[in-house]
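chain below, 354 aa
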Amino acid sequence: MRRNRWALALVAAGALAQNGNLVPVVSKSLSRTVDLPGEIQPYLSVAIHAKVSGYVERITVDRGSQVKTGELLVDLRAPELQAQIAEAESKVQAAESDRAQAEAQLNAAQSTYDRLKKASETPGAIAGNELVQAEQQVDAAKAVVRARAQAVSAAQSAVRAQKDVQAYLRITAPFDGVVTERTAHPGALVGPNTDALVTIEQVSRLRIIVPVPEQYLGALTHGASVGFRVPAYPERIYTGAVARSAHSLDTKTRTMAIELDAANRDGSLAPGMYPTIKWPVQSGKAALWVPRTAVVTTSERTFVIRDRGGHAEWVDVKKGAADGDLVEVSGNLHAGDRVVRRGTDELREGAAIR
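prediction:
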């Protein structure tokens, strides 16, 4: 009876090996992805403050407003600034009047010098020191004219500076974007030390910040396309391009901040979202791969069944990463070896395989 049962087991095992296909051991590099958390940030973000003190005359935007570069956001009013400009302009007029007076004195001194010089051509007509004194008066008058001209230039610069400050009363958008926060209202007194009036972010283009563990940095390629998902649209796969790297590891988390650039043409993405990034992981060395079903695991060993001259050979292996229907194995195998696709410990070692 025992012989009959043993013979039946061998026949059944042979039938399993014959009905199951033999497949080759494949050698290929490990290529897979791991899920990493990330954070979406605006490509540009700025909090707009008032550079000069004044009252909010009007504010033309609100939260959610789309703005263009140079578009008026807030108009301020500062009556004392207009008075300062008027005062500076009056100083310009006074300086120009002083310069005109100095030029008149220069012309008079120059005329006196010219007459004395002509008279000096007649011997004994004038004393020699009179001509010298007249020449010195001309030089002094020229110095006064130069000083008055510099005073005019300084007064004009002061007027321009005041008008430049006045221009800050009109606050415009520095880039195309969307207003994400507004805190100012008409009539409010604002200035350099107050809170931001509005916050503008550029959301048509986004930054995805990914803290990548040290062991996965080998797959980093500038410009590589990386997929990601967001909880708001779980069925949709977005893509971003690797654009920037911190080039330094965080000593606490052993991760490096990598930035992806992603287009947001339809506006479905928003800063503050936490995407899941499918980060590519690739190993430089080739590994051996077999179907998952080819690996047999018992309480004593893990092995595959290799075809050795038409007979079954149990080869101990260690399993590694999985890739679809394949699993990485290491052991006394070589690329091209044929193994039973659906391994089983019922196919005993040395049994015939057809």
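The radius of gyration is 44 Å. The longest helix spans residues 79-119.
thats it, cya
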